[in-house]
Amino acid sequence: MKKILLFLVLAAFAAGCRAEAMADGFGEERLLPLISINTVDPGEGTAFVTKPVKANVSEAIASWTPGYVIPPEPYYVDCTVSCTGTDGGISVDCAEAQVKVRGNWTTSYEKKPLRIKFEKKQSLCGLNGGREFKNWVLLAEYKDLSMLRNKAGFDLAHRILGKDLYCSDCMLVEVEINGEYWGVYLLAEQQECAEGRVNVPEPKKDDTGTDVGYFLEFDGYYYLEDRLRSFTINYADFAPLIPFNGDIGARPFTPLTTDPSNRNNVGYTIKSSIRSENQRIAIRDFVSNAYRIMYAAAYQDTALEMTPDRRSTVYARKTPREAVEAVVDVGSLADMYILSEIVCDPDVYWSSFFISVDLSENGDKRLRFEAPWDFDSSMGNRYVCVDAKGFHAANAVDDVDHRYRAINPWLAVLMQKDWFREIIAEKWTALYDSGAFSETVGMIRQDSVIYKDAFTRNYERWSNMADKSPLDYELNREAFNCRSEAESAEQLAHWLERRIEFLNGFWHK
Known about the structure:
Elements: H1 2-22, E1 34-39, H2 47-50, H3 55-64, E2 77-84, E3 90-101, E4 114-122, E5 133-139, H4 149-161, E6 170-177, E7 180-189, E8 213-219, E9 230-231, H5 235-238, E10 267-270, H6 277-299, E11 304-306, E12 313-315, H7 320-325, H8 330-343, E13 353-358, E14 368-369, E15 397-398, E16 405-406, H9 409-412, H10 418-434, H11 436-450, H12 452-461, H13 477-480, H14 485-507
Parallel strand pairs: 1-6
Antiparallel strand pairs: 1-2, 2-3, 3-4, 4-5, 5-7, 6-7, 8-10, 8-13, 9-10, 11-12, 13-14, 15-16
Helix pairs in contact: 4-8, 4-11, 8-10, 11-14
């Protein structure tokens, strides 16, 4: 009898999920897929998505806001997730999952990004060829009034990186939580190691050996992680770099910032599974020595290679370029430079810059630059390359609060070498001539028109278009003055056109 009652309760709950997913009020013709999130505990309501703020963010806000009450940190709640397609068909039906707020500064906004963790692997909206994964994210696009910068960034990344390097697939969706409309989000993939995502072999549960795969983020927030999941390196003893500003005559610049007492302010977070301190030391030494090999080749015209234990370097009987190519996938680095130079991400010196390496027996044991992420502040949104001109990605740049200048050492270190710039020029020319860049610009304008009604619903739900005061410091004046999603999308598209033409004048062969 108990089993029968339990079955009836679950059946009724599932039927209720389906009814809520279907009764969305958008009519028969839905512009975007609908993601329906329903918390298992009816008393939870929407507190889990309205109240939490990342601890480091709330502590910063409290430091300049008298009387500010520290809110809870993001936390998981049990839920079910359904996905209804534009044709009304339900592709995911009340799948068991957990959901929480994700992100850093974006957690302080009223509309917050979310992470979904399914109990069992699920395909969502056919992304990534319909592959099934447990982890997915919903990006809120709150500080991007066009709501299309992340989508455009991922589109550019797929065109530039090609099929051999991973980049998240994505799709605009609408979201409801416990039956309440929550707006337009960008459904994207979790940055993680998995077959079909960052495809490097993680250590098994009891495997403490060092010959495994690693996935890393160049990350100014590394200090928030425990010791086992983070490390720093000293960039060839903080040897000076020459920022790339279109010529090779710039003044040397010491990574990571102009403040000598604060050189370790950007470290590395290990995003893949790690089981032992030996593994942490192994990847730290590999990354440190790979950079040392790159620096010696670029600035000393010297070839180095790692010792068999990868803990130090020795002189190598090969050319400096061959020494670099033995430990770095330079094609992936050139791709990441092109993408980073186009979008002008304000955080390029700080975070959301990812590296993988496969040190397993069959791995190629080279750093690969892939999994680009976080474009909502880029492409003419903040005070970075506002006129779409100049060089940014490998240059010395202002930090987002204009307190100091910094540089991304990985993008800068090889830029003085003719052979590396030649790789960039060849890749750029092929991409430009194929029309790849202009297709992304066309997608921005097309999406703004096609999804106009969905964007209108979003801005009826949220106040950030009418009241931009929470975003004042985030937006340059041109972006701030946009009065509609359509104006913001056109501002984005026009900025991107100008940016591409400026760079084409330098890089096209």
